[in-house]
Specification:
The chain is mostly helical. It is built from seven helices and no strands.
């Protein structure tokens, strides 16, 4: 077995790791907004029924579901669209270039979620375990 085929055999597990790490980082954004953990002063007066409050719910709940890999494809599709909308509402008006408008994370989250929607959650997920159980 050569190095390339050895690495290729790890690709499905690497997909799971990419999904888990990305979703955890996304979930922490929601946790900061809604649970104030970690504390971010800019979210101290956040109203749940606001655009930012809804974003926090999507980040916390959607991120949590993706961490465990439950309903991965529909959640990833929803979050991909959410990040595209967030980019064009919050970042695009400042500049078209992400490095100039602070939108790099929104773009990266958007495309990783797009990839998870297409590729699936990988073998380390509740979705995969449920498929194996059938």
């Amino acid at each position: 077995m050569n190095a390339s085929s050895s690495l290729q055999s790890w690709a499905p597990r690497a997909l799971s790791v990419l999904r888990i790490v990305t979703a955890f980082l996304f979930m922490v954004h929601g946790s900061a907004k809604l649970l104030h953990v970690p504390h971010q002063a800019m979210f101290d007066n956040l109203k749940l029924m606001s655009q930012l409050g809804l974003q926090g719910v999507l980040e916390l709940v959607g991120g949590g579901l993706l961490v465990i890999g439950l309903f991965s494809r529909p959640i990833a599709f929803l979050l991909c669209g959410d990040m595209a909308v967030a980019y064009f509402i919050a970042h695009w008006p400042k500049s078209w270039l992400p490095i100039l408008n602070g939108g790099e994370l929104a773009v990266l989250f958007c495309f990783v979620f797009l990839y998870v929607w297409i590729a699936g959650p990988g073998p380390w997920s509740v979705d995969a375990a449920m498929r194996r159980g059938r």
